């Protein structure tokens, strides 16, 4: 299916293990609950698509666009989503442990309860993202932008490279685990 236009197609529950979806255009397509372990989705456009509860373990998503996509419960453990675009995407309870996420854009994404432990987020952008109760234990946040992000309940105290991350305008909560030296205002005090 490499290079195909499959916009608005329906593939719920499909087995796309090791599938080649490189360069496809799949705007507003339905991939809910697909099994796509090891799939190649590089440089594809999945804007507005739905990947709720999809299993994409070890998949390659470099340079792909998921702007405005619905990805609640997606499993991207060990996947490579470098240079991906997830602007305004819903990634609640997403599992992205040990994923490679270099220079990706998650601006305004809803990432409540996302698991990003041990993920390499180097150079990525989470500006205006809702990151309530996100687990960043052992994540590499070198040169990451969390400008105006809501980090209430987030676990950041064991993140790597935190001194180079940008937290301008970000907020946290009493339940947040933040490293010594990083002070963030309480989200309850933010407009």
Describe this structure in words.
By secondary structure, the protein is mostly loops. The protein has one domain: Pectate Lyase C-like. The chain has no helix or strand. The protein is elongated.
List its traits:
191 residues; little secondary structure; Pectate Lyase C-like
In whole angstroms, the N-to-C terminal distance is 46 Å
Which residue ranges are poorly predicted, with pLDDT under 50 across at least 5 consecutive positions? none
- Helical element count? 0
Mean pLDDT: 96
Which radius of gyration do the C-alpha atoms yield? Answer: 16 Å
Query: Can you count the beta strands?
Result: 0
The backbone outline, from C-alpha atoms, is: elongated
What class do helices, strands and sheet pairing give? Answer: little secondary structure
Name of the CATH homologous superfamily: E3 ubiquitin-protein ligase SopA
The biggest sheet amounts to: none
Query: What percentage of residues falls in helices of 4 or more residues?
Result: under 10%
For this structure, what is the CATH class?
Answer: Mainly Beta
Architecture, according to CATH? 3 Solenoid
């Amino acid at each position: 299916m490499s290079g195909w236009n499959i916009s608005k197609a329906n593939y719920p529950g499909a087995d796309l293990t090791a599938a080649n979806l490189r360069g496809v255009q799949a705007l507003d397509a339905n991939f809910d609950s697909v099994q796509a372990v090891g799939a190649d989705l590089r440089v594809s456009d999945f804007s507005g698509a739905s990947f709720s509860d999809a299993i994409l373990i070890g998949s390659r998503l470099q340079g792909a666009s998921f702007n405005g996509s619905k990805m609640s419960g997606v499993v991207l453990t060990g996947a490579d989503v470098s240079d991906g675009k997830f602007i305004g995407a819903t990634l609640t309870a997403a599992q992205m442990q040990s994923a490679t996420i270099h220079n990706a854009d998650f601006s305004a994404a809803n990432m409540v309860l996302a698991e990003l432990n041990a993920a390499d987020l180097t150079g990525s952008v989470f500006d205006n993202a809702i990151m309530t109760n996100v687990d960043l234990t052992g994540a590499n946040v070198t040169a990451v932008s969390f400008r105006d992000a809501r980090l209430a309940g987030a676990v950041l105290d064991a993140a790597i490279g935190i001194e180079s991350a940008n937290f301008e305008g970000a907020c946290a909560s009493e339940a947040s685990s933040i490293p010594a030296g990083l002070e963030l205002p309480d989200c309850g005090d933010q407009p």
